[in-house]
């Protein structure tokens, strides 16, 4: 089932790095699905560009293969695939030289629909961003309405992120730059805002007075999946916390924006990042998976027997502001954990007094927002344990699985489908602004420098476990426990 929506404006999307892994796995399948949903009008074009010497027909074969591998059942429909491929073209270019740029410029200039949106997806490493931006301008490919999409990692620290922002700013206004964080394109992540700001129920309780703590877990069962070289330089902190977990934290903690528009939302997220306190070394647990259950160790996966890169991180942080003073936020993410499970749990405080006496037990309400898989929301409510006995309390879930509650309509577009269409619509709400990215690095850098200076080695944990024991210990020291992964 593909969600149907009205066609967006005509567009030319040039995917620079169109033969790469991201294009195959995500960009091409996402566009194909939007094509199947009727969102690409006849005059839309997808132009792949990379150094590989292909003609348009050969690139269409590449696209067909990518769709067969990554676009699921829809790609079984030959007519749909052929229809999509009719929109596809290719030009060989070299981002570091002049090869192909004039041809690309001519191709874009001819055959472009009137008023078409022109977008350039930089699906290449960030070291090429500046070269590409300069050539787009020099070969007359951009105007004030053109858009560029850039991928993470957006730098590896504050300094490199500032340099990238400065390079892009030489050629594009901030309003033309779409920095992707694909977590913001996930339907349930957007639902965080709907739940918080569309219901009267939660907002009055959404503060340190009523909330004991908040946990964010993004657990993956996969390992580094052939991206060892990149991951060795990144680790879980740069790969996941600086961006995806930070965005989740922002959405759960931010003040209500005045409007659901790009700058109002991003202003509020920025305030959250800037309110983050530094993290104490004893509030960080880094881990690295060891071989177990038939899986190779992290070090074997990346081919570095001495690696000190973390494949897991858990940390406790505080927001230094009026709403959240005293409420800790616990973040945790890792690879090769027991199962894929991304969830946010908001743990409310005890009632101030129990009228039922100590035998009844004390219970806390928990709101669990399950991001993936099986998207849904559960609210734990305390009731009387059924039966003739005395008043004993028990927790029951008020459970709303989106798929059950909404049926097939809940089968939402993939994050990349949503985000690419937002680029065409010119809606930056779900993209990171330059100052947000820099603020996130400004918080992350001292944490990383701290463990580098101390020479901390990550703690080993068994592949397919819940991570290092120290992460559980960190929680237990606070009289709390992790939710989710251990279930
Ligand atoms: N793969 C993924 O799942 C994810 C990737 N990303 C990010 O997306 C970006 C692309 O990643 P990915 O697709 O995996 O990388 P790949 O190495 O698979 O692809 C890189 C692409 O860039 C092209 N390219 C390289 N050098 C040049 C050049 N000088 N001129 C023109 N084209 C060039 C390559 O083609 P050719 O060699 O023919 O030129 C290829 O199409 C990276 O920044 C990555 O970190 C982000 C999230 C997930
Ligand atoms: O950006 C990244 O995200 C993926 C996890 O994304 P998900 O949508 O599958 O949850 C992660 O595997 C990868 O290391 C990271 O670069």
Q: What attributes characterize this protein structure?
A:
nine-stranded mixed sheet, Dihydrodipicolinate Reductase, domain 2, Rossmann fold, binds NADPH dihydro-nicotinamide-adenine-dinucleotide phosphate, 14 helices, binds ligand LXAUTJHC
Describe the 3D structure.
The protein has 487 residues and is of the alpha/beta class. The chain has two domains: 11-151, 3-Layer(aba) Sandwich (Rossmann fold), CATH 3.40.50; 184-413 and 427-477, 2-Layer Sandwich (Dihydrodipicolinate Reductase, domain 2), CATH 3.30.360. Helices cover 36% and strands 20% of the residues. The protein is built from 14 helices and 15 strands. Strands 14-13-12-11-7-10-9-8-15 form a nine-stranded mixed beta sheet, with helices on both faces. α1 (21-36) packs across α12 (415-425), α8 crosses α13 (434-454) and α9 (262-275) runs parallel beside α13 (434-454). It is globular, with a radius of gyration of 24 Å. The two termini are 31 Å apart. The model has no long low-confidence stretch (mean pLDDT 93). Residues 220, 239 line the site of the ligand O=C1O[C@H](COP(=O)(O)O)[C@@H](O)[C@H](O)[C@H]1O. Residues 220, 239 line the site of ligand LXAUTJHC.
CATH-defined superfamily of the largest domain: Dihydrodipicolinate Reductase, domain 2
Average predicted local confidence, pLDDT = 93
Strand share of the residues?
Answer: 15-25%
Number of helices: 14
So, CATH architecture of the largest domain?
Answer: 2-Layer Sandwich
Give the strand order, joined by hyphens, for the main sheet: 14-13-12-11-7-10-9-8-15
Largest sheet: 9 strands, mixed
- Using the alpha-carbon principal axes, give the shape: globular
Terminal CA distance reads 31 Å
At CATH level 3, the topology of the largest domain is Dihydrodipicolinate Reductase, domain 2
What is the subunit arrangement here? single chain
Q: What is the number of strand segments?
A: 15
Structurally, the number of domains stands at: 2
Q: Low-confidence spans: pLDDT under 50, at least 5 residues?
A: none
Structural class designation: alpha/beta
Question: What ligands does this structure carry?
Answer: NADPH dihydro-nicotinamide-adenine-dinucleotide phosphate, the ligand O=C1O[C@H](COP(=O)(O)O)[C@@H](O)[C@H](O)[C@H]1O
How much helix, percentage-wise, in residues?
25-40%
One letter per element, helices H and strands E, the order comes to: EHEHHEHEHEHEHEHHEHEEEEEEHHHEH
CATH class of the largest domain: Alpha Beta
Family: Belongs to the glucose-6-phosphate dehydrogenase family.
Catalytic activity: D-glucose 6-phosphate + NADP(+) = 6-phospho-D-glucono-1,5-lactone + NADPH + H(+)
GO biological process, one term: pentose-phosphate shunt, oxidative branch
Pathway: Carbohydrate degradation; pentose phosphate pathway; D-ribulose 5-phosphate from D-glucose 6-phosphate (oxidative stage): step 1/3
